[in-house]
């Protein structure tokens, strides 16, 4: 069992603090410009990797938009995320073919090993865990993807071996 903790409540890393500082300078250029909210959110996410609460507050203040509106836009569009993402994205296929061949058990093994739930990221920011619905490789079920790599006929007993390739 892993002792890794989820980053549901997370602290900013030194690298993120630096990126936020740089973003603050860019935000200055958008002050007073109409329709700037979405482009500014996109820039922030691209620079920082996600949208921390402190950045949403900066944007609200910088653009003179209510914080509720900034949060509303950030949560409405699926391409915005307020959770930090791991360096490696693990996606477990729960499509029918994979499901009947044991992907549910594979998912449970990843959750246990990483100490996170679906949508979570490990505290060391190495892994984010998500589920998918058919990667088009049903004949090789159960299938998982790590970044752009496909792993086929995955068994719970192989989880550690797979993770070791990305450490
Ligand atoms: S159902 Fe998993 S790859 Fe198709």
Automatic annotation (TrEMBL):
Keywords: 2Fe-2S, Iron, Iron-sulfur, Metal-binding, Ubiquinone. Its cofactor is [2Fe-2S] cluster. InterPro entries: NADP_DH_HndA-like, NuoE-like, NuoE_dom, NuoE_N, Thioredoxin-like_sf. One of its GO terms (molecular function) is 2 iron, 2 sulfur cluster binding. Binds 1 [2Fe-2S] cluster. Pfam families: 2Fe-2S_thioredx. [2Fe-2S] cluster binds at residues 93, 98, 134, 138. Belongs to the complex I 24 kDa subunit family. This is NADH:ubiquinone oxidoreductase. It comes from candidate division WOR-1 bacterium RIFOXYC2_FULL_46_14.
């Amino acid at each position: 069992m892993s002792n890794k903790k989820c980053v549901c409540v997370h602290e900013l890393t030194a690298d993120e603090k630096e990126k936020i500082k740089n973003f603050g300078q860019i935000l200055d250029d958008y002050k007073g410009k109409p329709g700037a909210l979405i482009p500014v959110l996109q820039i922030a996410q691209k620079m920082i990797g996600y949208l921390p609460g402190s950045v949403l507050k900066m944007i609200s203040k910088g653009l003179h938009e209510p914080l509720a509106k900034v949060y509303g836009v950030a949560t409405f569009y699926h391409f915005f995320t307020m959770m930090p993402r791991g360096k490696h994205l693990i996606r477990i296929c729960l499509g029918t073919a994979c499901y009947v061949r044991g992907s549910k058990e594979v998912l449970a093994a990843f959750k246990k090993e990483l100490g996170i739930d679906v949508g979570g990221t490990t505290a060391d920011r190495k892994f984010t865990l998500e589920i998918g619905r058919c990667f088009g490789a049903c004949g090789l079920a159960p299938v998982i993807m790590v970044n752009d790599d496909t792993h086929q006929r995955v068994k719970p007993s192989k989880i550690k071996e797979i993770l070791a390739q990305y450490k």
